[in-house]
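Re: that chain you flagged

S.,

Sorry for the slow reply, it's been a week of failed gels. I finally had a moment to sit down with the sequence you sent. For the record, here it is as I used it:
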Amino acid sequence: MANKAEKSPSSLSEAPLAAFTQLQEAGLGNMVGMSNAWLETMGDMGAEVASFIAERIKEDVKTQHAILQCKNMTDLQTIQTEFVQKALDQYQAETGKLVEMGTKTFAANLKDQDGKS
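Prediction finished late last night. Pasting the structure tokens below so you have them in one place:
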């Protein structure tokens, strides 16, 4: 068998730290200090998206039920138009919520970094 160069446990544990240091030197700032707030926000955003998807599925089922009850094409067009308009409004509102959540996290992180400087 060929001799394999073994890495010491200390060099293995230093590799992730070295990667963060390189990213910070590249201008990405204090990513380590941001991790807790970022992970918390990502969890909140995930819950928000899951809730939004559940609401949209309810709207889909409601619309399908209404379509099945249609008696003429005019009613069908009205139902479809209302569905699309409501979906657009809800997606726009949800995007705004998610952007606001992310912005608050970045703003809080910047404030923390300014306070530590």
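What I noticed first: DSSP finds three helices and no strands in the chain.

Talk soon,
D.
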